[in-house]
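Sequence, please.
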């Protein structure tokens, strides 16, 4: 049997978020530093990160990965997190997921402090983390049982699993195992599994990063469609500037680490539904793209790689520490499930 740990599944299945509609014109475009409050934030805060800082222990002492991250997110908003590799995007997501504890500051979801993983925050990882010996249906079923075993009958659970697989256009292949379907299809199942838990917040860490451009475009369109229907809150990490502009209500741009924080926030005021072909020639779309590129390549020029994409090579000790800490966090997630 392949070396998939239960914690990997639970992590995928237990932690989880998203969308929004705005119209506007180029001149209304707002780019603001993290201290200002956007109109959407003023409507009603659903998810709030306040003064989030985190120190990781290293042989040379504490390493401050994040410093004073503040963000207010309204219900149904689609937020993208963008920044150079190693700046701390996944760390932010892991803190919202409850896998990491902030050293100072914290996260509040609907008035309740986040302290551990929970089914109201589902996570979709770049690597789908499906159990290879179970079919697509059974992978989703596992998560559905975990959340709804006391509230739904067997027949209701079956309908719910099929409904979620249909949402991601996987109903035709639901009895296939992961090794019988493509990477894009596996990622669809991962998304169906997360959605089937009816999370308040969907957390996605570079969900389409490993896919070819065409599959990626299809999945982005599906995700926009689903979010229009469900109106979940989504936080998605991406390296792809076009993906961020196409999908987001706001793009949160992070400064380089160490001690990374929110640099600027860009409101994307493009009406929905959004059509990638039409937007290609839209001056507003190209303006937003330019704003993000200028943040990444001019204001936050990466010292090591000078590019947003591609992993930065980390020192071995730090990497080893990170692996151990991640394993610890995963087993904590398994225990919580
Ligand atoms: N569990 C951990 N233990 C030690 N260092 C970590 C851990 N997780 C992340 N880091 C460090 O924190 C920084 C931010 O990492 P990460 O959030 O993974 O960045 P990103 O997702 O933006 O590429 C990096 O320098 C990374 O090495
Ligand atoms: Mg990351």
């Amino acid at each position: 049997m392949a070396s998939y740990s239960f914690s990997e599944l639970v992590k995928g299945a237990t932690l989880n978020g998203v969308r929004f509609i705005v119209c506007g014109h180029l001149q209304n475009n707002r780019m603001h530093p993290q201290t200002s409050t956007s109109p959407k934030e003023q409507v009603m805060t659903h998810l709030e990160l306040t003064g989030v800082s985190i120190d990781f222990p290293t042989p040379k002492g504490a390493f401050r990965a994040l410093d004073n991250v503040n963000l207010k997110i309204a219900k149904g908003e689609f937020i993208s997190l963008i920044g150079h590799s190693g700046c701390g995007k996944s760390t932010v997501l892991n803190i919202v997921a409850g896998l990491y504890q902030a050293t100072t500051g914290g996260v509040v979801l609907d008035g309740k402090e986040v302290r551990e993983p929970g089914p109201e925050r589902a996570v979709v990882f770049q690597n789908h983390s499906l159990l290879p010996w179970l079919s697509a249906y059974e992978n989703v079923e596992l998560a559905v049982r975990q959340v709804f075993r006391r509230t739904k009958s067997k027949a209701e659970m079956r309908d719910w699993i099929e409904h979620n697989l249909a949402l991601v256009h996987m109903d035709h292949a639901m009895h296939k195992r992961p090794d019988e379907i493509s990477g894009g299809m596996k990622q669809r199942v991962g998304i169906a599994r997360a959605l089937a838990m009816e999370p308040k917040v969907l957390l996605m860490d570079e969900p389409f990063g490993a896919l070819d451009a065409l599959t990626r475009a299809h999945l982005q369109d599906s995700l926009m469609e689903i979010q229009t229907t469900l109106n979940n809150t989504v936080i998605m990490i991406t390296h792809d500037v076009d993906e961020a502009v196409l999908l987001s209500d706001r793009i949160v741009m992070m400064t380089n680490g160490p001690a990374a924080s929110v640099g600027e926030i860009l409101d994307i005021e493009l009406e929905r539904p959004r059509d990638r072909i039409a937007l290609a020639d839209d001056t507003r779309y190209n303006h937003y793209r330019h704003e993000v590129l200028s943040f990444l390549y001019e204001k936050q020029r990466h010292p090591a790689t000078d590019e947003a994409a591609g992993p930065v090579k980390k020192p071995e000790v730090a990497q080893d520490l990170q692996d151990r800490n991640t394993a610890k966090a995963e087993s904590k997630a398994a225990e919580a499930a």
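The longest strand covers residues 61-73.
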